[in-house]
Structures are given as structure tokens and as C-alpha cells.
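Q: How would the C-alpha cells look for this protein?
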Amino acid sequence: MDMRGDLYVISAPSGTGKTTLCRMLLKQMDRVVFSVSHTTRPPRPGEVDGVDYHFVTKEVFLSMIKQGAFLEWAEVHGHFYGTSKEGVLKQLAEGLDVLLDIDVQGARQVKKSFPEAIMIFILPPTFQELERRLRSRGTEDEASLKVRIGNAKKEVLAAPEYDYILINDVLEEALDNFKSIIKANRHKKERMVALPQVKKILIEAEKAAEER
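A: Here is the predicted structure in C-alpha cell form.
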């Protein structure tokens, strides 16, 4: 199909399985890519420029902000992160569906500058399960964990702002639902009627109707 892609904004609290779902989707569906963000933080061991992030200086990043180059951007722990408008539009023009993994604040920015973005929020089966998953990681002390859980509560309350809500209880079921959203959007009438095959069928049907 020769058509423009869709931009999917994916948000979820930590511990919901968002990253896992996105990675599985990328492996199982064609014409789906992940948006690569710009950042001013230095690369971590093993990270590749242009693959994990576009690593730029603070001066370059601030210049891009002034130029309106970002769909969204934020400063986190002293470093800047942003999504390039040009990069996303290029991928969409190539017919690729783009996944943008960002928090609620960033998602709101994107929706303002790119209203046609499709918003998906991923929820855990219960909030108790989310807390259990976060604790089972064993990567944070109690104080940090409480902050993360508190932030998760605020994020969950934003779910009704999104177009779709997925519940990640059984991973494979959540993935199937995720894929269904993308497949359904690919077959909306607004884009299907623009396809040569569909146009041909409609023309043939119109001629047949006139001959009666």
C-alpha cells in the first residue's frame, strides 16, 4: 500500500510493559518504526548515535528549540530530550507508522502540534500489580520507589485523554490488541479510497451501474 503512515504516541507508567510491547510489535509488523529522539546527555556504553538517540550538544538542542524543530521536548535530570518534527514527518511520508514513546506531558505537546497523532495509553491490570512489578525489579531504594509510584498514579489519571487504552495483563493479548489498532487505522476509508486498487474497483462499479 502506498500511503502516508500514522504517528502513534505511546504512554504508560513505569512497570507497565510499554517498552516490551513496542519491541515485540516492531518485530511482528512491517512498516512500523521507532522514533529516535535527540538528547544532550552523553552516550552510555553500547549506545549508537542515530540508533538509540541522536546525541547533540546543548547549544545545538537550544538552537533547534528556537527554530521550532521539535514536536515535543523536555529537560530531565539536567539533560534535554526531544522529538524531531522533520525526522517524524520524513518517516510518515515514506509510509511508515512511527511509534513515539513519551510521557504524558510530552504527549500533550505532540497532540497540540500534531493533532492527527493517535494516542495510546497502556495500563497494568491493577494498580497493585503495577506496584508489585516495580518492587520486583529491585533496582531502587524505598524513597525512589515511592516517588515512582506517586508519579505513576498521576500518569494513570491521564489515560482518558488518549484515543485508545490497552490493559497489559496477558502480554500476548495486549500485543494482539496493539496490532489491531494499527491494522484498523491502516484501513480507514479516508486512506483506502486513495489506493489505485480501490479507485479501480469504484470506477468499475460506477460504469456497471451506468450500463444498467
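The chain is about 50% helix and 20% strand.

The radius of gyration is 20 Å.

Upvote if useful.
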